[in-house]
Amino acid sequence: MPSRTPTTSAAPSDAPARPTSDARPRVTTGDDVPALPPLTAQAELLLVRGVVPLTSLSPAALRDAAAALERTAPAGSLLVVHPRVLPPSALAGHLRRTTTVRGGAVERPGFVVVDMADVDDFGPVPGVDVPDADVYALAAPERGDEMANWSPEEAEPAISARGRSPLTLAEGIHWVLQSPDVLARNLCFMTIGSRLRRPDGTYDARTPAVWISNGTGRDGSARRGAPKVGWCWWRNRHTWLGFASAAARHA
């Protein structure tokens, strides 16, 4: 189990140097992330890429839901298919990111780390109210760059104090699928709206995150530059991970 004292982890080799002080920055709002297309265009991407299982959600139902949400949700919202229809384990493999290998562009698929076989068991934490709808919209997602080098334990109350909600893992993966450039070297994010509750009622200390693999260790060199669904300890800090959040969820 991790120490109760927040610890700054060793960053990847291409991450910025760790701060010499553990003082955390003042919370501001927003970050530099690509704008999302209309919800109807996001639905079409899911269909073209074969992301949604047709036995669980028909193309017509997805298109109708996206069109209805586009009329009510704020511009720039993210389209999310509920994890009961499309769990993180099925969604992660549809992520794509283009990287450079020996001077040439190579597209890498996303993956879930090997020691997170229980990824679909990470559910919403209390206070994160995921709509009971097969399709919903997430308003004003932010990567939370201003909280890089915070621990999840420190970031959770700060997000709440701003009247925002932390993203779930499924929502974070959907965001990267629709906008791959939301992941950038040293600017990735945690999704602390999802945690795994043990049989005794306590939480597993692993906390989900989405970042870019360096192709080391068990990831393997063939995954260098790929979108990576993994975890970090609840009380550890990471210089390259912010904390993704949203203004609201709409169904």
Keywords for this structure?
16 strands; alpha+beta; 251 residues; three-stranded antiparallel beta sheet
What structural class do you assign from the helix and strand content?
alpha+beta
Low-pLDDT stretches: 1-29
Average pLDDT, rounded to a whole number, is 89
Main sheet strand line-up: 5-12-11-9-14
Q: What is the radius of gyration computed over CA atoms, rounded to a whole number of angstroms?
A: 17 Å
Order of helices and strands: EHHEHEEEEEHEHEEEEEEEE
Strand content: 15-25%
Instruction: Choose one word for the global shape.
Output: globular
Structural description of this entry:
The strands form six sheets. A five-stranded mixed sheet has the order 5-12-11-9-14. A three-stranded antiparallel sheet has the order 2-7-16. The chain has a domain at 87-130 and 140-250. The chain is globular, with a radius of gyration of 17 Å. The termini are far apart. Mean pLDDT is 89; it is low at 1-29. Helix 1 (39-48) runs antiparallel to helix 2 (59-72). By secondary structure, the chain is an alpha+beta fold. A hairpin with a 2-residue loop joins strand 3 and strand 4. The chain contains five helices and 16 strands.
Task: Please summarize what this structure is.
The chain has helices at residues 39-48, 59-72, 88-91, 152-161, 169-178; strands spanning 7-8, 78-81, 96-101, 104-109, 111-112, 123-124, 135-139, 165-166, 188-190, 194-195, 206-212, 227-233, 236-237, 241-243, 245-246, 248-250. The chain has 251 residues and is an alpha+beta fold.
